[in-house]
């Protein structure tokens, strides 16, 4: 049996600062082969179970978010281009305040000069120099290849999922108990660091004057308006073609912040606080109700989008105010009715030609579960269970070692967003369905799809289980001149004729990858009895 997440983190953190982050050591890793275009789709290692999958889910969540935080591919706090920026002094003071043990003269990250608070939507996560993780990570060596970024714009969804993930990781370190005594202050310092990035990112994107707000389009009715994207280098904002998923991600993010019971005493929340986040969550939820219906949401991205919005409304239900909740509940009921029309008696959902069948089952199943719980919709439990059972029973292909997209006979293609939808459905299924099948399928998906396909492109040594029979490449040996950050690839494809996986999109798409990372994190949280946020 693998150690629990709590035990793993405690043991690693007391082993040294670099190990807490995930230092690479020769003693624990043999020579890694450079990442190739294709990987063998052999069966997963015998004995890999749900506990292993939850442990890996935690680490892949953490790898993705930490890599973004320190990688520099996005808006920085403070801005590294302007040495005279007064934020530099305030940042240095903030880091000093976060140091739980200032006498040891070693903050967990060496040379920390800035944090990413809003990631570019699409980036190249290859390093520009050989990465250093031991004895502690050196930020200057963890920067991504900025010249390889395909877009330097930030979007509401990308910013929102990053802020949400930062607060979730801060909470994960808080869950260690009393980190100041349990792990020599390392966990407390990391927790505060992620929370600092979360507050700064929230203010930058969605606070008063936030770069992703369309305040000119807001009125006195308390309805927030979002921009489509913002280019920080050109200082240009795009307002056309805003998306439902941007509003959905923002509501989920704000609901998470509004649910914070307290704020780390060393963190300056600047111009926004928990009360502000609650007001903004209400305003953004009203915007979804006013601007969208089931048809427009589905037209934008298929019926899986309707499932995501249902999940968001359910999450919002735990923090929403009496003024906004009645309209949200009615809207949720309307969305459920539209989804119900597409579900057959066995729980299988009718999908369009371009939709991933398993991803739709997962997104809608999780959406029905969370909306029913958060909004008290009174849905038939058997009907919700049927949707999730169809994901596990009908969409999983044990022969192929993955969930069937049912879009083509020769290949099975899965984007990182679709993988997030699938894991979301598995999260709901694990909480609702009895029996071993859902546990076995969840473990098999992590082992035979996420690992074999290289959806997660690299892995730090701290994430390798002591008795693991194999591991992913280390960041330094994951391809490219100097290696790659341990983050998700954009999309993978399984070729049935050759029984091989192929990475078909190597870019890091912030909104998609961070959404998936959060779903992987909730998979891990369920193992500790922590309520998914």
UniProtKB/TrEMBL annotation:
Biased composition (Acidic residues): 31-41
InterPro entries: TAT_signal
Domain of life from the UniProt record: Archaea
Protein name per the record: Uncharacterized protein
Region feature Disordered, mapped onto this chain: 26-48
């Amino acid at each position: 049996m693998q150690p629990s997440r709590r035990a793993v983190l405690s043991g690693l953190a007391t082993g040294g600062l670099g190990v807490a982050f995930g230092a690479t050591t020769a003693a624990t890793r043999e020579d890694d082969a450079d990442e190739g275009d294709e990987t063998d789709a052999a069966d997963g290692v015998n004995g890999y179970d749900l506990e292993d999958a939850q442990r890996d889910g935690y680490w892949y969540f953490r790898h993705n978010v930490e890599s973004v935080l320190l990688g520099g591919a996005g808006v920085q706090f403070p801005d590294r281009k302007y040495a005279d920026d007064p934020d530099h002094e305030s940042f240095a003071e903030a880091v000093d305040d976060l140091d739980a043990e200032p006498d040891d003269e070693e903050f967990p990250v060496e040379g920390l000069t800035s944090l990413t608070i809003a990631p570019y939507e699409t980036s190249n996560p290859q390093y520009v120099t050989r990465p250093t993780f031991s004895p502690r990570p050196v930020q200057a060596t963890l920067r991504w290849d900025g010249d390889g970024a395909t877009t330097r714009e930030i979007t509401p969804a990308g910013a929102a999922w990053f802020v949400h993930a930062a607060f979730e990781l801060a909470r994960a370190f808080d869950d260690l108990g009393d980190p100041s005594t349990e792990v020599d202050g390392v966990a407390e310092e990391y927790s505060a660091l992620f929370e600092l990035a979360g507050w700064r990112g929230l203010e930058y994107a969605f606070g008063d004057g936030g770069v992703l707000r369309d305040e000119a389009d807001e009125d006195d009715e308390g309805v927030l308006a979002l921009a489509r994207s913002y280019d920080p280098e050109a200082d240009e904002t795009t307002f056309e073609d805003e998306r439902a998923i941007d509003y959905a991600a923002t509501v989920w993010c704000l609901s998470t912040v509004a649910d914070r019971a307290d704020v780390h005493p060393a963190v300056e929340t600047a111009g926004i606080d928990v009360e502000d986040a609650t007001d903004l969550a209400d305003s953004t939820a009203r915007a979804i109700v006013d601007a969208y219906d089931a048809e427009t949401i589905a037209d934008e991205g298929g019926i899986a989008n309707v499932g995501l919005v249902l999940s968001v409304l359910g999450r919002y239900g735990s923090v929403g105010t009496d003024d906004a909740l009645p309209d949200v509940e009615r809207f949720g009921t309307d969305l459920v009715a539209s989804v119900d029309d597409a579900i057959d008696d066995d729980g299988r959902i009718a999908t369009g030609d371009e939709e991933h069948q398993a991803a739709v089952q997962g997104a809608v199943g999780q959406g029905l579960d969370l909306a029913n719980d958060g909004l008290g919709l009174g849905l038939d439990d058997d009907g919700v269970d049927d949707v999730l059972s169809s994901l596990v029973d009908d969409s999983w292909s044990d022969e192929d070692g993955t969930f069937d997209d049912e879009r083509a006979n020769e290949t099975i293609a899965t984007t990182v967003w679709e993988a997030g939808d699938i894991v979301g459905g598995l999260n709901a299924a694990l909480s609702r369905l009895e029996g071993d099948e859902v546990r076995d399928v969840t473990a098999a998906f992590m082992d035979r799809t996420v690992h074999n396909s290289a959806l997660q492109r690299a892995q730090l040594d701290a994430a390798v289980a002591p008795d693991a029979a194999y591991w992913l490449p280390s960041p330094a040996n994951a391809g490219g001149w100097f290696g790659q950050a341990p983050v998700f690839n954009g999309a993978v494809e399984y070729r049935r004729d050759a029984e091989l996986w192929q990475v078909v999109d190597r870019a890091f798409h912030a909104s998609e990858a961070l959404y998936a990372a959060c779903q992987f994190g909730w998979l891990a949280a369920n193992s500790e009895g922590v309520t998914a946020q």
